[in-house]
Design goal:
76% helix; 419 residues; single chain; 4 domains; mainly alpha
Length: 419
């Protein structure tokens, strides 16, 4: 849970920082700043943020609705997912709204709704492509940062102001601790105890505020006509180096010292834990009904509204409030993850051309998905997996033979072999 708090906070911080930076640039052009200007700046902040949020939500819902009907054209699912998410960023910037907030909100909606409509192959494609692009972009950011630091070495030292840089580092750290402790106090005090953030977790959140690509990019975007640009860039470099190398290298030791609970590998008991949590939730609801108290938090209201209206409209084959749905979804997610880990990539690539040819020739795609489901059910048995892979390899050697089998299967295929 701590990971999601730190990741979500840093993600939204970047978006809000860029919006505030653009508003400050507009204020710079004014001769004098009045109260009305500050009010309009606040209104502009809301319009830019909420406008980007609206664009992202609309395109996220559009992605979910489209993928609801892509059962027979699975190959376009990743294209729609990445294409519409990038379109949300483009539209946000085109209308001078927050493209990053639009991209974040679009991704959240796609994860919550659209990903449930995708096939196993589309999920695997999206997962691996996202990891590759993420690693490449992270590496390029720090490569560019290092190259710029070396190339601008002359002015970096000539315009470097040591006292200003030290004050920048101290203020960044102190202000972050103040803001984090203040906001987490409000969360713990007024959110009804949904998730209490401990003092140790607050310290890690405050200490883990690393500066990098966003701060460097915003400092580098300052116009060259500004005399203090080099001094600001030098201070930004010092803040980045301090937070990345000093705070980043010591965060692991602090996590161990403060005894932060790490994510355990409870995969063998996840279904039991989910059942246990569900039983406790139902018991708590019964006690609330007896006491006349009902938790009408925004989270519960939005969750009920989503289950009643959004999911039936955006997800295929969705049914509400069936017994065992939660456990079935958890088991399906675990099996999908295990299959993605255990399945052989070599055999999948060697059969991909044949599978695509079968789908294009009009063979029902569900027949292909059935083979995946069979692997999911039997992947834990090594002998069963080996038997299925051997039989599948024999069947997929010749596409003409496959087509003949599909047209007249009962004469050629011994189904007892697959039972």
């Amino acid at each position: 849970m701590l990971y999601f708090m730190v990741f979500g906070e840093s993600l939204l911080n970047d978006a809000v920082t860029i919006v505030c930076y653009n508003i400050a640039n507009e204020f710079k052009e004014l001769e004098s700043i009045t109260f009305f200007d500050c009010f309009m700046g606040f209104v502009s902040f809301l319009v830019v943020s909420l406008g980007g949020l609206a664009i992202g939500l609309i395109l996220g819902f559009l992605t979910s609705f489209i993928t609801k009907y892509t059962e027979h054209v699975r190959v376009v699912e990743p294209v729609f997912l990445f294409g519409l998410s990038y379109l949300s960023y483009i539209l946000g910037e085109l209308f001078h709204l927050s493209g990053i907030i639009a991209l974040i909100s679009c991704g959240l909606v796609q994860t919550h709704y659209a990903m449930r409509n995708l096939s196993y192959k589309s999920n695997a494609c999206i997962m691996y492509f996202t990891k590759v692009i993420s690693n490449i972009m992270e590496s390029m950011i720090f490569i560019i940062l290092g190259v710029m630091l070396v190339n601008e070495r002359g002015w970096f030292w000539s315009d470097w102001h040591p006292l200003f840089s030290v004050f920048s580092i101290v203020l960044c750290v102190v202000v972050r601790f103040i803001v984090v402790y203040f906001l987490t106090y409000i969360i713990n005090r007024y959110t009804g105890g949904v998730r209490h953030v401990s003092f140790q977790e607050q310290f890690i959140i405050a200490y883990g505020g690393l500066r990098g690509a966003i701060s460097f990019s915003l400092a580098f975007m300052i116009d060259d006509s500004v005399e203090e640009k080099n001094t600001l860039l030098a201070a930004t470099y010092m803040v980045i180096l301090f937070t990345v190398f000093i705070q980043g290298s010591s965060i692991k030791l602090l996590v161990k010292y403060l005894k932060i609970q790490l994510a355990g590998k409870n995969d063998r008991f996840r279904l039991f834990l989910e059942f246990n949590h569900g039983m406790i939730d139902n018991l708590s609801q019964g006690i609330e009904d007896l006491c006349g108290y009902k938790n009408y938090s925004w989270i519960n209201i939005c969750s009920r509204w989503s289950r009643r209206f959004l999911r039936p409209f955006l997800q295929k084959n969705y049914t509400e409030d069936k017994k065992g749905n939660k456990l079935a979804e958890m088991d399906k997610a675990l099996n999908l993850r295990d299959q993605m880990i255990a399945s052989s990539s070599t055999n999948s690539f060697s059969r991909q051309a044949t599978i695509d040819e079968m789908a294009e020739s009009g063979i029902n795609v569900d027949l292909i998905d059935d083979e995946e489901g069979l692997c999911i059910q039997n992947h834990k048995d090594p002998h069963r997996v080996e038997e299925i892979e051997k039989a599948t390899d024999e069947l997929t050697k010749d596409s003409a033979h496959i087509r003949a089998l599909m047209n007249n299967p009962f004469e050629e295929v011994d189904f007892e072999h697959f039972r």
